[in-house]
Amino acid sequence: xxxxxxxxxxxxxxxxxxxxxxxxxxxxxxLEDQNLPGFARxxxxxxxxxxxxxxxxxxxxxxxxxxxxxxxxEKPPVDFGSPEKVxxxxxxxxxxxxxxxxxxxxxxxxxxxxxxxxxxxxxINEQVEEEKTAEEILQQLKALGERTHMLLVMDHKLGxxxx
Length: 163
Ligand code: MG
Description:
About 80% of the residues lie in helices and about 0% in strands. It is an all-alpha fold. Helix 3 (about 85-110) packs antiparallel against helix 4. It starts with a helix and ends with a helix. The mean pLDDT is about 95. Magnesium ion binds near residues 17, 20, 50, 53 and 97.
């Protein structure tokens, strides 16, 4: 059985992961509108990944005999600006998610909830990847500068994402 404090924090994390999914989906729509189908495809793949993060915690709470309680998801923006701005936003957002997972981990430690700590190890590692990927793409976009034809090369590259 999971304690109420940890359960509440896990539920908040589920909502944050599903909110992330919704933001990536909105980014996909905005990039589709900029005629960048590869970037849009990347965002949609990321949308699915965030839903999977939320569901991983959803199933975990249920497995521990906790009650899943979904929170409200805010309306995402319609415009996110240039691809460089989009990835600046993504990097900031993923850093926020990392901080939230670390806080959750600290709570699990304080509450001596060892199973939750183990569960969160996967998320801690995943955030290292998320931040690394966002940072890498952002730096590449910055390096393009005014060479807009290179943006189409990157669009092709991002569109090749498998999942
Ligand atoms: Mg996530």
